[in-house]
Amino acid sequence: MAKTPEVGTAAPDFTLPGLLVGADGEAPRGSYALSGQLGTPLVLAFYPGDNTAVCTKQLCSYTSDLERFKDLGATVWGISPQDLDSHESFARRHDLAFPLLADTDREVAKAYGIAVPGLGLRRSVFIVDAAGTVRWKHVALAGLTFQSTDTLTEELTKALGRF
């Protein structure tokens, strides 16, 4: 398995299927590529599973605070091993307002060094700058807690050089 990318190195590129449930109730499905986000800071929130207690709390908190990320010019993507049908149900149930990407074969989790054989993946967050460089990361050992919006926006601010 690959090691997690070091801060200051290029984030592994990937393309995954994903969806975003819009305010109009539509949920268009498409491909999301890291390389397609160049020019925009990105928060990659890897989470173990849809509709689980900690993951639900985590993604709902990021949705509630989404404007704080947007104010810093950043986009948030949630990534987990469930398929798009599961993601759509989860997003609708909890009014999640950012794209959820399906890493069903865990190839992206493996590329980021966070896949756990037999269990899925470690709850992790990577902040990637507009040039595609990892600027901050947190990889949980147990995954029973998550990084708060306060922590993430503080790290985003540092990564973007806005002190």
Strand order of the largest sheet: 2-1-5-4-3-8-9
Task: Tally the helices.
Answer: 5
Terminal CA distance:
36 Å
Q: Supply Rg.
A: 14 Å
Share in helix: 25-40%
- Overall geometry comes to globular
Class of secondary structure makeup: alpha+beta
Largest sheet: 7 strands, mixed
Strands, total number: 9
Task: Identify low-pLDDT runs.
Answer: none
Task: Give the strand content.
Answer: 15-25%
Provide the residue-averaged pLDDT: 94
Order of helices and strands: EEEHHEHEHEEEEH
Textual characterization of the structure:
By secondary structure, this protein is of the alpha+beta class. It is built from five helices and nine strands. It has helices at 53-64, 66-71, 84-94, 107-111, 149-159; strands at residues 15-19, 29-33, 42-46, 75-80, 100-102, 115-116, 120-121, 124-128, 134-139. The strands form two sheets. The protein has a seven-stranded mixed beta sheet. Strands 6-7 form a two-stranded antiparallel ribbon. The termini are far apart.
Features:
163 residues, two-stranded antiparallel sheet, 7-stranded mixed sheet, single chain, alpha+beta, 9 strands, 28% helix, globular, 24% strand
Sum this structure up briefly:
This protein is α+β, with helices and mostly antiparallel strands.
Write the layout of secondary structure elements.
Layout: E1 15-19, E2 29-33, E3 42-46, H1 53-64, H2 66-71, E4 75-80, H3 84-94, E5 100-102, H4 107-111, E6 115-116, E7 120-121, E8 124-128, E9 134-139, H5 149-159
